[in-house]
Amino acid sequence: MVEALILPLVKIVIVLVAVLVTVMYIVLLERKVQAWVQVRLGPMRVGPHGILQPLADVLKLFVKEDITPARADKWVFTAAPIIVLVPALIAFAVIPFAGDLTLFGLTIPGRIADVNVGLLYVISVAGIGIYGIILGGWSSNSKWALLGSLRSSAQLISYEIAVTMTLVTVIMLAGTLSMVGIVQAQLAKGWWFGFMQPVAFFIYFVGALAETNRAPFDLPEAEQELVAGFHTEYSGMRFAFYFLAEYANMIVVSTVATTLFLGGWLAPFPNVSWLSFLGLVPGWAWFMLKTFGFLYAFLWVRATFPRYRYDQLMRLGWKWLIPLAILNVVVTGLLKVLV
Amino acid sequence: MIITTTHYMLLSAALFTLGIIGVMTRRNVIIILMSIELMLNAVNINFIAFSHQLQNVVGQVFAVFVIVVAAAEAAVGLGIILAFYRNKETVNIDEMGLMRW
Amino acid sequence: MQTDAPRPMFDTDELVINMGPQHPSTHGVLRLILRLDGERVVSCDPVIGYLHRGVEKLSENRDYTQIVLLTDRMDYVAAATNNLGYVETVEKLYGLEVPRRARYIRTILSELQRVASHLLWLGTHAADLGALTVLLFGLRERELVLDLFEEYCGARLTYNAMRIGGQPVDVPVGWDKKVLAFCDVQEQKLPEYEQLLTGNRIFMERTKAVGVISAADAVAVGLCGPPLRASGVYRDVRKDEPYAAYEEMEFDVPLGVAGDTYDRYLVRLEEFRQSLRIIRQAVQGLPEGPIMGKVPRLIKPPAGETYHAIEAPKGELGYFIASDGKSASPYRFRVRPPSFCNLQALPQLVKGHLVADVVALIGTIDIVLGEVDR
Amino acid sequence: MAEAVAFYICAALILGFGALVITAKSTVHSVLYLVADFLCVAALYVMLQAPFLAVIQVMVYAGGIVVLYLFVVMLVNLKRPPEAHSDPRRLGRLGVAMAAAVLVEFAAIFALGWAKPASAGGALSPNNVEQIGRALYTDYLIPFEVASVLLLVAMIGAIVLAKREL
């Protein structure tokens, strides 16, 4: 009973809360990092060094008026933010946050579920979120939002291909679709796949930026061009849902990158004897560290680069990343057969 | 209560019927195409159910092929609709008598 | 087929959208009516006048001395050059002699103003392309210029820093050293912007071959200032019809080759360096002497009319003043604002480009709506 | 018991959403119901121990094909006055024939069906990604290749049809 029902429930609650808190503080971190890059201070007023700023933001979004534009499709307009948020959250179900933990004599696997098609599950769930973006843009009955949502969906679909191709190389190396299996395969090989597949890792990173609509691929919500893209007409809590979903998606792609390319919860250099003290740090801490490292790269890129133009983005995706990813699959396959 | 393959077959038949009704009654070509997707899904349910009953993977393999066909159908069908809409500004199937003589 | 059905909003042919007057990147209250084919601009109609305050008509009911502060409000990010253009026009109309020291101070102020204005342009242009960091870097240095202005005349935005016949105040003690120090700082910071933009692949892709305008077209459409020079036309009022103390200064006029957005960026970046060069020369060669010429209590120029132009940061800023010789205010007052003339090129520039480029092109012609609408 | 509850819930949702697909007034709503319907079908696949197919269903159908539908609906159907969208008498005679066929089908299921429940513990394990892959690349290699050619043809066809000028 405990293992079948209560434990998963507790884990789900822990993961959900952790994700939401992380989202709140990623927003703060983003503002801080950007401020530091831009010789500013960032939020400083709410709490010491703005540490309570996320709470204030959430409070503000809660009490703001929730506006539905006239002639909007009310039903779809309300559903769209939820459709975006839910897939972003349920994707965490198969992410292995840690190895097996032992607590009170119970062996607790450090994940909610280990599905044997885990990786495919993440990809397919990520594909659902796009509906929220398209529908949100369409239902707000605004041309800017519509343009934004069209851009966004075209972008997501094209970059999903490249990203999925990179995942195929990882699957080829690991020989399994299970997220836990992939981490264990990295342990068995003695190398993180990020080192064995640098090209795939790079393409994944670029694709991840594009799929989460982050700079320099933040065209769908490019505020200098499309005002705010598909969520131009949203306000209050419904806007907060979009906001949450964007950052939750960032965390999803970061955790997937950590699992696939950076060895998940494994400590680095397990074979270097004088670095063995690194193994003392618990697995979940390594996992969080790696995820945050990846997330930091997102913020760093945003503070540094200008934005691509729509046609350039498409060209980059279709003419460079996808062929490169396919070539990478072919080369990996050849090496696997020959070596 | 045990769920048998027959249950799945009945569900599939019902879904298939819904698809047929859609094709027969609606005028919007897009909805007609969607009804066809419903029918393809009904077929897939049957495939998987039998695959489960016979403990044979072939049913699933064919379901994959059905999905492939559905994708191809959607791509070409929607392409035709778009091309037609551009010329005639309508998606009403009764107005699509271009090839009829 | 229903013939009376309303046309669908998202036609596969054309989409008309309103960019502005409330839009994050139209630099004020510019409104563009864009006809789009997909995301490609078929035609662009700028609608102006949202910031019209009637500066020209107001001026015809003010004393000549009072008009100086109205000119502040035109190009409000480059008030000093506006002042300069106006006071020199009146001086020309009246035949007043301006002391050499005053002319030097004016040169310093107008070049500092050019640096400040270009910094703001650089920042907003980069921000329009998504590079927010450059904006903050630019504002950081602009702050130093504003501090210098504040020390000189007490104001940070609308200076009212010039008078007909000379300068109202002399430079504060130690100000010249601070100006030189600022020049050094600015010189060091320039590579920082270049590092973020000049060689950046994304920036180059966004700007190269975007909004190309040939030299002949640029002249035909009436471009002026940096956009004109970026098309390879040698035209700089400071060189062609020197005013203030520019005759005694040594500087180069950077020219572009391709006439695209990237060249306009490079030209303005080089103008930073030339401006700093001029400031250094002017500060080091600042002559002694009076700062105010002989000016009668009531300025009442003789009947006649005159046109005088200066090189404002955004281009050729000209004033036309007609006096009837009887009243103490102009009979006719007319401004040729560079932003307005450059804005005329926008429809031609954006045609065939994408929506995203419209933003880049509004940024590249560097308009201030206060000046366009007056 | 739990399986039965899950099945009936799924079945009800599938049929309910299916009915909404063909009756919804707005085409966009119709597309939305179609997505929901496909997601429920995916849940059914999970119950039938075909998780791979379930994921493929979500990925290809919900994440790909229906997005295409949505795109076209948005491009085509925006702000058109609601035309008489449903015409029950359209294709009436064919309908009668079809109804007869369906009745025969149901009768056949009832007469010949009621087979034994699925025999668990056969050759099919829930972890069957490998099995599907093996079948696809060995016994069904030719159909697989034909299917990929079909996709290629469809892709080219769609591009040719949708592109305004070539």
Structure description:
- The complex is a heterotetramer of chains A (339), B (101), C (374) and D (166).
- By secondary structure, chain A is mainly α.
- Chain A is built from twelve helices and two strands.
- In chain A, helix 4 (118-139) packs antiparallel against helix 5 and helix 5 (143-174) packs across helix 6 (179-189).
- Chain B is mainly alpha-helical and 101 residues long.
- Chain B has helices at 5-25, 29-54, 58-88.
- In chain B, helix 1 (5-25) packs antiparallel against helix 2 and helix 2 runs antiparallel to helix 3 (58-88).
- The termini of chain B are far apart.
- The model of chain B has no long low-confidence stretch (mean pLDDT 81).
- Chain C has a single domain (51-373), classed as Cytochrome-c3 Hydrogenase, chain B, CATH 1.10.645.10.
- In chain C, the strands form two sheets. Chain C has a three-stranded antiparallel β-sheet with strand order 1-2-3. Chain C has a three-stranded antiparallel β-sheet with strand order 4-5-6.
- The N and C termini of chain C lie far apart (51 Å).
- Residues 1-11 of chain C have low confidence and may be disordered.
- With 166 residues, chain D is mostly helical.
- Chain D has six helices and no strands.
- Chains in contact: A-C, A-D, B-C, B-D, C-D.
Cα-to-Cα separation, first versus last residue of chain A: 48 Å
Number of helix segments of chain D?
6
The oligomeric status of these chains comes to: heterotetramer
Shape of chain A: globular
Number of DSSP strand runs of chain D = 0
Q: What is the average of the pLDDT values of chain A?
A: 82
Number of domains of chain D: 2
Order of helices and strands of chain D: HHHHHH
Please state the CA-atom Rg of chain D, rounded to the nearest Å: 20 Å
Look up the CATH topology of the largest domain in chain D: Four Helix Bundle (Hemerythrin (Met), subunit A)
Secondary-structure class of chain A? mainly alpha
* Cα-to-Cα separation, first versus last residue of chain D: 59 Å
Largest interface: B-D, 72 and 86 residues
What portion of residues of chain A belong to β-strands? Answer: under 5%
CATH architecture level-2 label of the largest domain in chain D:
Up-down Bundle
Helix % of chain D is: over 70%
Can you give the helix content of chain A as a percent range?
55-70%
